[in-house]
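[audit] Reproducing an earlier prediction to check determinism. Same input, same settings, fresh worker. If the tokens differ from the archived copy the diff job will pick it up downstream; this log only records the rerun itself.
[audit] input (353 residues):
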Amino acid sequence: MLEALRLRLDRLGRPLRFMEVCGTHTHAFSSTGLRHLLEGRLELRSGPGCPVCVTSATDVGRALYLARRSDVILCTYGDMMRVPGGGSSLASERARGADVRVVYSAADALDIADKESDRQVVFLGVGFETTAPALALALERARGSDADNFRILSLQKTLPGALVSLLSSGDIGLDGLILPGHVATVAGRSAFDFVAADLGLPAAVVGFEPVDLLAGLLRLVDGVASGNRRVDNAYPRAVRDEGNPRARALVEKYFRPVDAEWRGLGTVPDSGLRLRADFAGFDAADMIPRDLAPAGDPPGCRCADVLTGAILPGECALFGDGCTPRDPAGPCMVSSEGACAAHYRYGGGADRG
């Protein structure tokens, strides 16, 4: 398959540029060596598909505010611990005495709330369509329990609106999109039809094994060569056109679309999820002052440019010097799905430009 892909790319007579929207794809292309094996024929740019990375500095600041409250136990995924915002991070706040706990799910946070009835337990809900159903399931369970001290700060986001915003903002020279298989299992392939119909780009929903990656790339290259602009499903064993209607219905029961701030994209209409009014008692957003000063991005960090495909990680002046996985300056180097972390780990720290 690799040789077939190389031959088809050579026949085109020019290198192509695709964007891998999903952070897991970023790591898969790097760890398998495909990124380097296709160098000169195909350039892969990262997109806004790492939920930790696209969480804005302002939202990190809101989480820090909650962590500093003595009456709050803040529960979070591990990737969020070192994300900087306003000169601090959740890891730094924990070192200063804040009760910040790493959990694997919202259900774990609910278990903590059952045991810590004298304090508010807030789960930091970061993720895309894939994690939102699990958050809704935790709320289903919370409604039937005695844990009235369980809350969620929903920083959940949905990808289609972000892609519209990104691809409509200017020409970033893309020939196609590699769409996230995880998200499409819930949202469905058809949720991305707008990429071809409205934006004129071929796209493919792709899985994560090497054979999946190659199959998806072959379909995209064929789409470019034929001029056929469509959204292919190259991950049919997991993704259906309609996605998972039951999971979406559960999310819609508890959440409503709201405008959300994305790192690199600014405010994107209807791309966030907030608890509906009927479930406002679970909403930790009401615990945060509306006039809380916004936090700034780390000085010199160009994570926002990486997330929009404007630059490759190695083109940031901090990459590999002032920013490494051991001592990260920005979230793209912190997260296990971050593009900078992938390029550093699998490019030997020398991936510059």
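[audit] rerun output stored. Observation attached for the diff report: Residues 348-353 have pLDDT under 50 and may be disordered.
[audit] end
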